[in-house]
Amino acid sequence: MENLSSGLFDFFKQLKIRDILKSLRVRFFFIIAVTGLISCLCIHLLILDSYENRAVSVRTTEVQTQLRILANHLIFYNYLQNTSSEVINAELDMLANLYDGRVMVINDDLKVVKDTYNISQGKTIISEEVVNCLKTGTKGTTSKYDQSNGYIELITPIVETQVIEEQDVSLKGDSNEVVRGVLLTSVSTDTIATTLEILSRRAVTIEIIIVLIIFVFAAVVSYTLLKPFDRITSAINDIKEGYTDKPIVGPNFLETEQIIKAFNALLRRMKVLDDSRQEFVSNVSHELKTPITSIKILADSLLAQEDVPNEVYRDFMNDIGHEIDREDKIINDLLALVKMDKTAAGLTITSVDVVLLTENVLKRLRPIARKHNIELVLESKRAITAEIDEVKISLVIQNLVENAIKYNKDNGFVRVELDADHQYFYVSVIDSGMGIPAESLDHIYERFYRVDKSRSREIGGTGLGLSIARNAVIMHRGTIDVESKLGEGTTFTVRIPLTSAGKR
To answer: Pick from 357, 375, 376: which is nearest to 494 by CA?
Structure first.
């Protein structure tokens, strides 16, 4: 209990006043507490109301029984004509005293022949209920409960039974009931009200105890239910501060398991990204350092020699120029890749003739193809117009075709096929090159990854071309697939939506 109190105190201490209502723990507490309070109030009202109705019903039935007996005695002693009967008067007074009420005997002329309060005796009473009872010949007792004034009013007919004597034997012995008067009785409900008051006080005492229990229960439940979330928050904070990088382990609750699984998946993703970033930085450093190292060696070699012939000097400077070109290409590719990595880097969408775009790209690459004796062919099955970023798609086609030329066989071919349906256009780059090993197919889009590192450096590849192409395709919400057989050739297939995602 001390730990609970301490935990709640620390929790509320950390919260600002404006944040208290935002707390899920506070909301849990209020929901449970209010639910308990409303339940207590409803039970309180229902029980007291049920008791009152039951008590009034029992009192009414009890008095009705006494009044029916008294009505019979009034007829037997002919009390409506002669009110001097001590027996009847005693019964009337006893009944009035017993129920702390008032009894009036009214004859069929609406005259009060007896009033236990001695107030209305001898007077004529006009009451709708009394008149109806006399004139309509109502045989049963009627009652009305006046809760505000605290009494029950009962109207009991005084019925005389007359035997009908007829000549007809079949009718002999029949009787006729005649209402001779009315008993108007008021019965106090003070005892019921007193009992209700006592019950109400006791109920309030019990409810206060129950409310305290509910508040404690609400505090315990809200604290206990959300304690796992506190542990998760603490574990996340430890990871944020760098104290640990281990996955979070928590209680086996469905909700917390979902949160933990989602966060651990994010943590794994962050680790992959961090490893990839470190590898990227390492690769960039290596790739940029290699040309610089070569330039440094070449320059030192020139400086170390005296009277260097012009031919040697020219060769060294030619090599230095190649290394500078290589460095420049790496930097340009890196800049292109970084721009595509930025989520803020948008697409400049225009309506583009894809066939003409491809023809222009191939026109720039044909000199390289002729240099390697590579046949470069374009096959288009139909005219294609799409809403794309012309520069980025040009870069995709250029990188794929340039790779197909550089990693091809002598006297080989590169065939570019264009096609489209009602949703997408397709660019297939097919070559007769050396192919890609199956184990390398999952890595070819990684930055600086090379299948044949020695040949890549020989032909000036940076290992960034396919990464750039894939990023540009993804920015267009497209796909890029590869099929390759070692020694036979490779086919890259790009699928791009005809309509820009931003305009759909």
So the answer is: 357
Q: Is the pLDDT confidence value at 225 over 90? A: no
Considering the domain architecture, whether residues 151 and 24 belong to the same structural domain is answered as: yes
**Sign, CA torsion 336/342/344/347:** positive
316 inside domain: yes
CA distance 124 to 107: 10
pLDDT value of position 343:
45
Q: Which helix H or strand E contains 389, and what residues bound it?
A: strand 385-389
Strands (E), 128-245: 142-146, 151-163, 175-188
What CATH number corresponds to the domain at position 68?
3.30.450.20
**Burial category of 457 from C-beta neighbours within 10 Å (exposed 0-12, middle 13-18, buried 19 and up):** middle
Q: Give the three-class secondary structure for 188.
A: strand
Average pLDDT value over all residues in the chain = 79
Closest CA to 427 of 469, 462, 467: 469
238 in any annotated domain: no
Q: Is the CA virtual torsion 251, 255, 259, 264 positive or negative? A: positive
Q: What is the CATH number of the domain that holds 263?
A: 1.10.287.130
CB 93 within 8 A of CB 116: yes
In angstroms, the CA 113 to CA 106 distance is: 6
Q: Give pLDDT tens digits for 309-357.
A: 777 777 777 777 777 776 776 677 666 666 665 443 567 889 999 999 9
CA distance linking residue 88 with residue 63, whole number of Å: 16
Q: Kindly report, residue by residue over 255-269, the tens digit of the pLDDT.
A: 677 777 877 888 877
Segment holding 190, helix H or strand E: helix 190-241
Number of domains in the chain: 3
Residues 36 and 170 in one domain: yes
Closest CA to 494 of 381, 404, 400: 400
Query: Which residues neighbour 28 within 8 Å (Cβ) at sequence distance 6 or greater?
Result: 218, 221, 222, 225, 226
Numbers of helices and strands, H then E, in the chain: 12, 12
Cα–Cα distance, 438 to 486 (Å, whole number): 8
What is the reported pLDDT for 248? 75
